[in-house]
Recover the amino acids of this structure.
């Protein structure tokens, strides 16, 4: 069966679709990742995978960060990735706005680290380094938001060891290095 030249994709086209697959997966798993970050009880394997998958894109991490910082957000119904072209940056990114629930943020940060630990102990988990690094970057922000600069810097360094271009981990590490604290921490 012969196809016309008009329907044949150039050789580089399939790679372009595969290149951003982690962002598509992150957007799809965002509500499940948000639930896994704050759910009661121990972190399940599926919850760990949902967290690391949802953290594979910066836009979804910013949405998770805003969700965690919102003291009125109980359930991630309708949560979507952050659109930097139409939405302002979440004020909580820089520690502004109302103080988040400390227990909720602590639980989320600890779960990010637990997801990383599980990933580091297995090779066949199906989770990407991008998502695991992203989860550690989010976990670093959680520690920073609670005023634990040393813990935040440590988590950020581990994230950058996995992926040295992680923007959230870099921001947290820089904030810790110059002793910038969230406004709600005083």
């Amino acid at each position: 069966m012969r196809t016309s030249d008009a329907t044949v994709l150039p050789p580089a086209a399939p790679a372009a679709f595969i290149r951003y697959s982690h962002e598509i997966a992150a957007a799809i798993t965002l509500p499940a990742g948000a639930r896994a970050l704050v759910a009661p009880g121990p972190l399940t394997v599926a919850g760990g995978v949902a967290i690391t998958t949802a953290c594979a894109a910066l836009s979804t991490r910013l949405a998770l960060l805003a969700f965690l910082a919102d003291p009125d957000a109980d359930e991630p119904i309708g949560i979507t990735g952050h659109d930097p072209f139409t939405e302002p940056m979440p004020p909580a990114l820089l520690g502004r706005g109302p103080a988040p629930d400390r227990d909720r943020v602590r639980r989320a940060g600890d779960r990010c680290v637990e997801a990383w630990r599980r990933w580091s102990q297995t090779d066949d988990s199906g989770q990407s380094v991008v998502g695991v690094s992203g989860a550690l970057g989010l976990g670093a922000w959680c520690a920073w938001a609670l005023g634990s600069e040393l813990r935040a810097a440590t988590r950020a360094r581990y994230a950058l060891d996995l992926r040295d271009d992680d923007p959230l981990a870099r921001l947290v590490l820089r904030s810790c290095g110059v002793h910038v604290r969230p406004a709600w921490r005083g």
